[in-house]
Amino acid sequence: MLFSGVGCLDVFAHQPLLDPQNFRLHFTPGRDNVVADLLSRAIPNSPPDPYLAPGQDQAEHDLVQLLHTPLQETVSLREIQDASADDPTLSTLSTYIRQGWPARVPDEMLPYSRVRDELSCWNDTCIARGLCTVVPSALRARALAMAHEGHLGIVKLKQRCRDVVWWPGIDKEIETLVKDCTACLLSGKTWGLMYEGCVRTKT
Predict the structure, then answer these.
(1) Domain spans of the chain, in order of start
(2) Are 132 and 164 in contact (CB under 8 A)?
(3) Inter-axis angle of helices 154-162 and 140-147, nearest 10
(4) What is the rounded CA–CA span in Å between residue 174 and residue 180?
(5) What gap in Å lies between CA 124 and CA 84, rounded to an integer?
(6) Distances from the Cα of 45 to the Cα of 35, 49, 61, 94, angstroms
(7) Which secondary structure element, helix H or strand E, spans residue 119, and what is its range?
(8) How many CA atoms are closer than 13 Å to the CA of 52, on its beta-carbon side?
(9) DSSP bridge pairs for 120
């Protein structure tokens, strides 16, 4: 094999593997390789997207819609509003936030009372702790399922949830979710449960 030029360094690196083979190299310019570039060169003429912002690239718009739509379909703002209004605990909490806390707080409200200075009410029925949404009880399982979609471990899942959602006992529910997850168990993220009583050694 005879090659020249700096561009052939990769070929030289693989020369010991290529020497026993009987082959012939043929270069095809990219402009002539229409099969590999078919999708970008054969776009049908179509009317502009009415939802496309001025100056926004169509591919960027499609990608944003692709990523955002599943989240909207899973838990919408309207669902959070309705579920918060139907949740008796959050309804009481909303009243406390807007009208003031009583001298004696019911037992079920104590976890919220401990963080009362961080709580706020928005959209009349929704409640936030700092920048995190306080998820009503009816949506908590779905919220955890969404956060655990990539099968994160306990620590990373807690970190992800702490940025966006909160409710009393969320850390304990996360630990239970990951420990009961078959995929996490098989991947070793819950090693302690899988081999309870065994001693883990370094290899």
Answers:
(1) 73-193
(2) yes
(3) 120
(4) 10
(5) 10
(6) 20, 12, 18, 53
(7) strand 119-122
(8) 14
(9) 128
Per-residue pLDDT of the chain (203 residues; tens, 9 = 90+): 444 444 455 556 667 777 777 777 777 776 666 555 555 555 555 555 555 556 656 666 555 555 444 444 467 888 999 999 999 999 999 999 999 999 999 999 999 999 999 999 988 889 999 988 999 999 999 888 888 877 788 898 899 888 889 999 999 999 998 888 877 777 665 544 444 444 555 54
The CATH number of the domain covering residues in 73-193: 1.10.340.70
Cα distance between residue 109 and residue 90, in whole Å: 9
Whole-structure pTM value: 0.56
Instruction: Retrieve residue 110's tokens.
Output: 């104590």
